[in-house]
Amino acid sequence: MRITEGKVITCSPGRNFVTLKLQTEDGVYGLGDATLNGRELAVASYLTDHVIPLLVGRDARRIEDIWQLLYKGAYWRRGPVTMTAIAAVDTALWDIKGKSLNTPVYQLVGGASRDAVMVYGHASGNTIDETIESVKRFAARGYRAVRAQCSVTGLERTYGVSQSEA
Q1: Alpha carbons 4 and 89: distance in angstroms, whole number
Q2: Contact 63, 93 (CB under 8 A)
Q3: How far apart are the first and last CA of the chain?
Q4: What is the pLDDT of residues 57-80, one digit of tens each?
Q5: Which long-range contacts (CB under 8 A, 24 or more apart) does 48-55 make?
Q6: How much of the chain is in helix, strand and coil states, percent to nearest 5?
């Protein structure tokens, strides 16, 4: 399962989200995030000019071997641009492996570690009473944490409200 090509996708002008797409000869592709706040285009250039040429022709299943090649063989070792690029390659290779085995990547790296993740709702209103009602609606839907934001006479205030107060 050799890597045949790599492509750097930069989108969202002014923000520059960077995604690496690696393609294999078997038609399987993997995606990896290469966004580094403030240095997105440096990572994109590093991937395009230096990393992708090293990857073409390599076996995508040799994830650790490729990681070591990029980590130890990089001219700019261990800097944020290099490490972000390596992380994108690593993620894309794990994505390829998971797809080729028809298995979620989390199963390949040890399985689930929790059954749920706590999230919060974002309640808002133009008055304190509207904001409180919005918080109550989130609590009724089962949220255990709610961020409440109220705009009062043009001034914006943020209040943390626990479920017991809602």
Answers
A1: 14
A2: yes
A3: 55
A4: 999 999 999 999 999 886 667 889
A5: 48/8, 50/74, 50/75, 51/6, 51/85, 51/89, 52/5, 52/6, 52/7, 52/8, 55/3, 55/6, 55/22, 55/89
A6: 40, 25, 30
